[in-house]
Amino acid sequence: MFDKINKIFDFSQNALNLYAKRQEILSSNIANADTPGYKSIDIDFKNELSKVLQQKNIKNKNILLKKTSLYHLNGKNNHSFSLKFIPVVDANQIKPDGNTVDMDRERIEFIDNSLKYQSSLIFMKNQIKNIMSVLKG
Amino acid sequence: MSLLNIFNIAGSALTAQSQKINIIASNLANMESTIYKNGKYYPYIAKTVFFKFDGLKENSKIGGVKVSNILDDTTPMPLIYDPNHPMANNKGYVLTSNVNPITEMVNNISASRSYQANIEVLKTAKSMIIKTLTISE
Question: Where is the Flagellar basal body rod protein N-terminal domain (chain A) (predicted)?
Answer without folding.
Answer: 10-39
